[in-house]
Write a structure and sequence with these properties.
The protein has about 260 residues and is mainly beta. It is built from 1 helix and 16 strands. The protein is globular, with a radius of gyration of 29 Å.
């Protein structure tokens, strides 16, 4: 009888082990799943790395996703490249800071920020902040915003892009409104589309491209921040400009311009 009980106990134990193995959690590799669209909310990546003039540091844009607001958020971070031991540190608070650019002497960083006022995102402006900290200072106040800052070799000016017109700058003389003239035209939200390529991602105004407002190269004199006299328009006309850069002596600015109508064809 004892032998039968012992054999029966061993059999029950074996069955219990088999059941345990059957219902036990699968190995980690077996729990992998295909990527889903909601995984995007967890992504964090970097972009636009910019090396300091002495090569000791690199500034970059950190991009993350705000799930509640359904939008990307960007801030500027700085990493030490000399040793690599120190972790990257956050340089700006964001959440819409881009285009970090080092001053020629490496003591300041210019960047583009789209600030928020009373719940509304304002046109992006160029800010400058010292590497020792402190609050960033806005050096432009342009109705349609500024982008793509490029320092002059002597650090006394910044070239940038904007679609603003000279008479729209703060303090600029406005054209007189005459009865029946251009200045008296009523503003309307009706859009007349005449171009094949009329929308683009990341463009203000619900993605519409304003072909009547090409981006042109402007120069900002840092000695007079925020004043109308501080801005000088370098390029003009119906064709836009981009990829601007200074000559080594600071006397010329080179840029790229596609001067063909309906060039998207």
């Amino acid at each position: 009888m004892l032998r039968q009980r012992t054999a029966r106990t061993v059999m029950y134990a074996a069955i219990a082990v088999m059941l345990a193995l059957t219902i036990a959690p699968a190995p980690q590799a077996a729990t992998r799943r295909p990527i889903s669209e909601t995984d995007l909310f967890s992504f964090v990546w970097i972009a636009d790395p910019q090396m300091a003039p002495d090569g000791s540091r690199v500034a970059f844009v950190r991009v993350s996703v705000n799930r509640q607001k359904d939008q990307y958020e960007t801030s500027i971070w700085i990493a030490d490249t000399s040793t690599g031991a120190a972790a990257p540190r956050q340089f700006t608070t964001g959440p819409r800071d881009t285009s970090p650019r080092w001053s020629p002497d490496g003591t300041r960083l210019a960047f583009v920020r789209a600030a928020e006022t009373e719940g509304r995102v304002q046109p992006p402006q160029i800010y400058v902040m010292g590497l020792n900290g402190g609050e960033p200072r806005a050096f432009t106040n342009i109705p349609r915003g500024a982008a793509s800052p490029v320092w002059a070799p002597d650090g006394k000016a910044i070239a940038f892009l904007s679609s603003v017109r000279p008479d729209e700058l703060p303090g600029a003389e406005k054209p007189e409104s005459k009865p029946g003239g251009e200045g008296a035209k009523r503003q309307t939200d009706v859009r007349v589309i005449t171009d094949a390529a009329y929308r683009a991602n990341g463009v203000a105004g619900a993605g519409y491209v304003d072909s009547d407002r090409p981006s042109h190269v402007w120069v900002l004199a840092l000695s007079e921040p925020g004043s109308a006299q501080a801005y000088a328009q370098i390029t003009s006309g119906e064709f836009g400009a981009s990829n601007h850069t200074w000559s080594p002596d600071g006397n010329d600015i080179y840029f790229v311009s596609n001067r063909r109508r309906e060039s998207y064809y």
